[in-house]
Amino acid sequence: MKAVLLAAGLGTRLRPITNKVPKCMVPVNGMPIIEKQILNLVENGIKDIYVVAGYKCEVLKAFLRKNYPFVHVIENEVYDTTNNMFSLYMTMDFVRDSEFLLMNSDVFHDANIETGLINSNEVNMVACEHGRYIEESMKITVDNETVAHISKQINPEEAYATSIDVYKIGVEAGNILFDMCIDIIEKQGNRNSWTEVALDQIFSKIEFYPYNIEGRWFEIDNHKDLAAAEELFK
User: Fold this and answer.
1) What angle do CA 128, 129, 133 make, to 5 degrees?
2) How far is CA 138 from the centre of its chain?
3) Partners of 128 in the beta sheet?
4) Are 75 and 177 in contact (CB under 8 A)?
5) To which CATH superfamily is domain 2-232 assigned?
6) What are the residue boundaries of the structural domains of the chain, listed by start?
7) Which has the closest alpha carbon to 107: 223, 216, 213, 2?
8) C-alpha angle with apex 203: 160 to 170, nearest 5 degrees?
9) Cis omega (within 30 of 0) for bond into 32
10) Would you give the DSSP letter of residue 185?
11) Which helix (H) or strand (E) holds 54?
12) Which UniProt keywords are listed (predicted)?
């Protein structure tokens, strides 16, 4: 099992903190978000980790080189004109034909979320939680016990749960996902799309199951989120 952490974002709504560090290194009670994710993975036996960096890449590289030298860093030099699908696309040569966990590096969460995904017999899963619907929530719908759609535009009344942006992806699903990235980025010339656009299309091709989490999590996009996360994890 490998892991891909998408960490190229600018984090403009977390300034002035992100004037000095990338969004993924914003600390929650003293611990950078990405450090918590790496520790979660290591606790669950995963050390084959690929981080796609962009904004303040050298700061992140220095931190990882000093503390977690086994982590592979891939630099997205066009982070300011692309979205996270392009960052995922950059990992293709390293994780294709492998099962992997995929996550955005702005989600601070408990390690038992990874544990549950890894231990599940299901090959493909979307980690999710019922409730806590806000405008920015990436919501999912479910049909016949499998995930049907994922989008921020889903009406909360029609949603099954909120995705926490952590996914378990098997070999077949991963290869389909990368083929979609190739089609969207190389053939259509669209480098500004979100990973969830491709995932939404995959659900009709291969089964993904919802994984209803029991641990704590918080997606940190702004200072209000950061304060709430620090209260939750204090």
Assistant:
1) 110
2) 12
3) 163, 212
4) no
5) Spore Coat Polysaccharide Biosynthesis Protein SpsA; Chain A (3.90.550.10)
6) 2-232
7) 216
8) 110
9) no
10) I
11) none
12) Nucleotidyltransferase, Transferase
Q: How much is the pTM?
A: 0.94
Q: Can you tell me the distance from the alpha carbon of 17 to that of 33, in angstroms, rounded to the nearest whole number? A: 13
Supply the DSSP string of 129-183, one letter for each residue.
ESS---TT-EEEEEETTEEEEEETTS-TTT-SEEEEEEEEE-HHHHHHHHHHHHI
Residues 132-155: pLDDT tens digits? 666 667 999 999 999 999 999 998
Question: What is the share, in percent, of the chain residues with pLDDT greater than 70?
Answer: 98
User: 22-61 pLDDT, tens per residue?
Assistant: 999 999 999 999 999 999 999 999 999 999 999 999 999 9
Following DSSP, what letter does each residue of 67-97 receive, concatenated?
H-TTSEEEE-TTGGG--HHHHHHTTHHHHTT
Question: CA 186, 188, 191: angle at the middle one, nearest 5?
Answer: 65
Nearest to 71 by CA among 52, 91, 51: 51
Q: Any idea which residue has 């199951």 for tokens?
A: 209
Q: Give SS3 for 40.
A: helix
